[in-house]
Design a protein that fits this description.
Layout (H helix, E strand, L loop, with lengths): L8 E5 L3 H12 L3 E6 L10 E3 L5 E3 L8 H10 L11 E3 L5 E3 L5 E2 L5 H12 L3 H22 L14 H11 L5 H5 L6 H6 L19 H10 L2 E3 L4 H13 L3 E4 L3 E6 L10 E6 L4 E3 L2 E4 L3 H7 L8 H9 L6 E9 L9 E4 L4 H9 L10 E4 L1 H4 L10 E8 L12 H20 L7 E7 L1 H8 L31 E3 L10 H19 L11 H5 L1 H13 L22 H29 L1
Helix pairs in contact: 1-9, 1-16, 2-16, 4-5, 4-8, 4-18, 5-19
């Protein structure tokens, strides 16, 4: 058998967070990389909007969470955030959460302040229950890092490993909604809201999102919320610079019309050979990595004549998608001191507000929304003594399949009126007279500017059948040498998650297209998950009580001690077998009706 030749060249379609990161990784491995971006800027949704009057807005993400995944990316590339001039500013408090009666809750990494906040609402025993919730959030966080964010799922067969399935089911509580599970720790409705709204970071309702996602607010409280000085794009700008030093070339304002293949020679599986640009130019490469929206790519970029692609694209169109947003970018003539860097305004009719978005694809009558004031933590975002404000109002994604069109001018006006009236009623701050300039992004903006299917700002949803091996694979269906990175492939959405995904896809490329003995030029996920690191992680998971005795008043025993006694063996089998059977039933359902 002829020895596999290492790929010499790669084309990355899209300069979002995933495309930028994987370009640098492949360049570090000696591949000649070119990145093609349809817009005249890098970063995708993580880009900036500048006005002629000196205001700066983060077009998309504005909260830097899971800082360890950012640091891992930079360390793998032989540098650090600090070395690349990225300064992270911590936000104190994390944010203000405003309720309908004007009362507020201010989450913070300051444990003493958090104790006072919790006990104000939950009573003297509230802080103990909060610490229990935090411990479970830690369990969700560590288990997800180890078994999801640092592991690829290239086949549904990988979920047939009973040890993995049991570990994930027991540690992550994927079949219980975060709203229901949070109710086990907090007595008051308002604290349930405080510790569940963050599922909107994933574009999901807390009444549907798995309890696993408590890891998001755990991260905020354990590691803090950060903001890069100069805007979120500074992180991606640094990755662009690193890649360029390694030889990555960027062509901006260069749209791709389709991925080219060899058609499958001599009965072999078709192989990607390059791309055709919108101007007709053809570029050849050994690898093609698509960072465009995955649903858009299957419907518009991949060749339909390849077996299975057209059918799969149609199925993707019917997959559950995340929400969209109406985002306002306001330049103010003065400061708005009543607002912190991050502000959450929760609807009084909390469940109804989510039902309107996710069940009816509409704008709630009383919307919850997010206000970001970058100039509060980073004065360079606005002229002196003025503020830049972003108001993000979640709304259902665009309708398709002949459904009636919505009245968008009316919805935008309704959203603006609701935001301004709510802020004034709850904080006393009248923003309307201060607004000197307004920029608006609607679901149509997200769809046209970034090729986001249905204008869904966070890609596909993250319900049970859209995660792990159920999520679209990192390798293109029916094609060799064609891969995906980004929000709608494994492991999922959010900048740190996508950066982790860039590493996963890069290592799959090493495994499948490089000579067998080629080693990635960084600490791989397999190395990270093996040996000492693996034992340490399992010890942490066990210490949190994932593997403990059941039906006993005694403390849980570890390791082989947990299996002493016939009754304990029965209990352990019951505790593990039932979730495993449920998971296997889910796999069968997916294979028959979803895939």
């Amino acid at each position: 058998m002829a020895e596999i030749q290492r790929p010499r060249s790669a084309i990355i379609v899209g300069a979002g967070a995933g495309g930028i990161a994987i370009a640098a990784r492949l360049a570090k491995a000696g591949v000649d990389v070119i990145v093609l971006e349809k817009n005249d800027f890098t970063g995708g949704r993580c880009s900036l909007i500048h006005t002629k009057d000196g205001y700066r807005f983060d077009q998309g993400p504005s909260l830097l969470l899971l800082p360890g995944l950012f640091r891992e990316t930079f360390e793998d590339l032989g540098t650090s955030l600090e070395q690349e001039g990225v300064e992270l500013l911590q936000c104190f408090p994390n944010y203000n959460i405003w309720f309908s009666d004007g009362k507020r809750f201010s989450p913070t990494t300051d444990t003493a302040a958090m104790k006072l906040e919790i006990e104000k609402w939950e009573g003297p025993d509230g802080f103990r229950r909060y610490l229990s919730w935090l411990a479970e959030g830690h369990q969700h966080y560590e288990t997800s890092l180890r078994h999801v964010l640092h592991r690829n799922f290239k086949s549904i067969v990988e979920l047939a490993d009973p040890r993995l399935v049991i570990r994930l089911l027991m540690a992550l509580h994927p079949f219980e909604s975060i709203w229901h599970r949070t109710g086990r720790f907090f007595k008051t409705d308002r604290m349930q809201r405080v510790f569940t709204f963050a599922t909107m970071y994933m574009g999901m309702s807390p009444f549907e999102a798995p309890a696993t996602y408590s890891l998001l607010q755990y991260s905020e409280l354990a590691e803090g919320i950060w903001y890069p000085r100069g805007g979120f794009h500074k992180v991606l700008e640094a990755l662009v610079n690193i890649g360029q030093r390694m030889g990555v070339k960027y062509r901006l304002g260069t749209g791709v019309s389709k991925v080219l293949t060899d058609g499958g020679k001599n009965g072999k599986k078709p192989k990607a050979t390059g791309v055709q640009l919108e101007n007709g130019e053809v570029l050849n490469a050994d690898l093609v990595v698509v960072n465009a929206d995955l649903v858009y790519a299957y419907n518009n970029l991949l060749p339909k004549e390849i077996g299975g692609i057209e059918r799969y694209a149609s199925k993707l169109n019917n997959r559950k998608a995340s929400c969209s947003s109406i985002s306002f970018y306001w330049s103010l003539s003065s400061k708005a001191p009543e607002l912190e860097t991050h502000n959450i305004f929760l609807a009084e009719e909390y469940k109804e507000s989510f039902d309107a978005i996710f069940e009816r694809q509409a704008l709630p009558d009383d919307p919850s929304f997010y206000i970001h004031v970058p100039s509060r933590v980073d004065p360079s975002a606005a002229p002196p003594n003025r503020d830049a404000i972003i108001a993000l109002v979640p709304i259902g994604h665009l309708l398709q399949n002949g459904q009636p069109e919505q009245d968008w001018p009316s919805l935008i006006s309704k959203a603006r009126t609701a935001v301004l009236a709510t802020i004034e009623a709850r904080t006393g701050c009248s923003l309307s007279p201060l607004i000197t300039d307004e920029i608006i992004n609607t679901p149509y903006t997200w769809e046209s500017k970034f090729n986001l299917s249905k204008g869904a700002i966070l890609g596909l949803a993250h319900d049970f059948f859209n995660v792990l091996a159920f999520r679209p694979r990192t390798k293109a269906k029916g094609l060799d040498n064609a891969y995906f990175v980004g929000a709608s492939t494994h492991p999922g959405t959010g900048v740190p998650i996508v950066l982790a995904g860039a590493k996963i896809t890069a290592e799959q490329i090493f495994e499948e297209t490089f000579p067998r003995d080629t080693k990635a030029p960084w600490t791989t996920n397999e190395e990270r998950n093996s040996g000492r690191m693996r034992r340490e992680m399992d010890e942490r998971i066990m210490k949190e009580g994932v593997i403990t005795r059941v039906n006993s008043n005694k403390p849980g025993r570890r390791g082989s001690d947990a299996f002493e006694g016939e009754m304990e063996v029965v209990n352990l089998l019951w505790q593990r077998l039932v979730p495993l059977l449920v998971a296997l039933a889910g796999v069968v359902y997916f294979l028959l009706f979803v895939r």
